[in-house]
């Protein structure tokens, strides 16, 4: 019976790759999980447990990631979670069902991340006399996370009796994961900067006293505290494992909660934005970026370019730590540059913008909202890690400033380019790799010119950053960051204004071009 449940779990995970949109979302989750797991291992190797601030950051990061792992199964809307109620109609022995569900909890992204977190925790304490205790704490911690996620899924499935409740639970889980990643990144930034270490230690002491962090603080203490925390973890595992068959039996045998309620209908993103032209266009663009396979392919491919550049330069003999300064600027550059042909992706839907009394500014501003929502948090979260792994002191302001500058400048230039020189694009509903039938040499010129224009406008900031790196000048690096941010903001505003004027003047011509392709 256990092997049947495991195969069912694998089949559920595999079903996430059916369909272009679902496959893109699944790949995005895998990329995010892989990035988090890699970051955990790399950070663990940099931890110096003899330092109090490093131990405090280790407790906070481990606890924050643990919280994200526990709620991760809920972020998919319970669609790929094997909760006990699904087996109520089958004559399965409750003990075997409980064992199968327990083992199935290890299969999947949350289980893999729980194991990775345990391994990273052991690596951090590997060269100390408490390495054995860290191994024991990591193993117990991973088991606790897997079991806690199982209990949370089982309990939440009983509450999700309506589609509105499912959406609320999913949104809350995703928000919790985002906050957990943000808290972990903030702890890393504070340790790197050396600021407010006392506050960091105080926060870690509070977290260590909670069920979320007491195991991850086990090696950091005297013998009595270590024994108490490990004993508490072992008791927690024993209680959860012993109570699991009873919980499964109760859930399967209890009557299902049913609440009759009218079907809830809404407009999705359009319900969440103000009733303005810019907001309506932003909501429609968000639908493109989250559901259109053409846009999802770009989101998946964006991390590939910097990764390939890092591999090529590493093979050529470049210092590996310095290569970590590449991903953030390159990601920001291509994310901002992608919108240079955004109008062409509308195809026949463009007629609404032409027929409505729509200002060009509203169209331009609405289209840049999704890349801003995607790029800005990623740049702010990834920049501290890139600065830390590069081993270059005081480089964080330059990474943040140039990253934001490249993103905003790219969006500003693209706002003009997409209205001034659009070229044929794949039609809506096409696959992510489909090409339009009329694609000519003009597309290559437009793409190259737009990319070079972005780099030209950002050249002063990038030059200052390079000089600061070569001279190891913190003031120059900080100046490069401020220059990049100011350039990006100015180019975004200017690009939206000019692009809006061009769009309004050329709207009929743009519609004719799109209808011919």
Q: How large is the share of residues in beta strands? A: under 5%
Number of separate strands:
0
> Secondary-structure element sequence?
HHHHHHHHHHHHHHHHHHHHH
Query: Mean of the pLDDT scores?
Result: 81
Unreliable sequence segments: 258-264
Provide a count of the helices: 21
Radius of gyration: 26 Å
Indicate the overall shape. globular
- Largest sheet entry: none
Q: Helicity range of the residues? A: over 70%
Q: Distance between the terminal alpha carbons, to the nearest Å?
A: 55 Å
Specify the structural class: mainly alpha
Structural overview:
- The protein has 517 residues and is mainly alpha-helical.
- It contains 21 helices and no strands.
- It is globular and about 75 Å long.
- The model is unreliable at 258-264 (pLDDT under 50).
Q: Summed up, what is this model?
A:
With 517 residues, the chain is an all-alpha fold. Helices cover 74% and strands 0% of the residues.
Strand and helix layout:
Layout: H1 2-14, H2 20-46, H3 52-71, H4 94-104, H5 109-124, H6 131-159, H7 163-193, H8 197-208, H9 223-253, H10 269-272, H11 277-291, H12 293-301, H13 304-315, H14 320-323, H15 327-337, H16 350-355, H17 360-390, H18 396-420, H19 441-457, H20 459-471, H21 474-516
Helix pairs in contact: 1-4, 2-5, 2-12, 3-5, 3-6, 3-7, 3-8, 4-9, 5-6, 6-9, 7-17, 11-12, 11-17, 13-15, 15-17, 15-18, 17-18, 17-21, 18-19, 18-21, 20-21
Offer a few descriptive terms:
single chain; 517 residues; mainly alpha
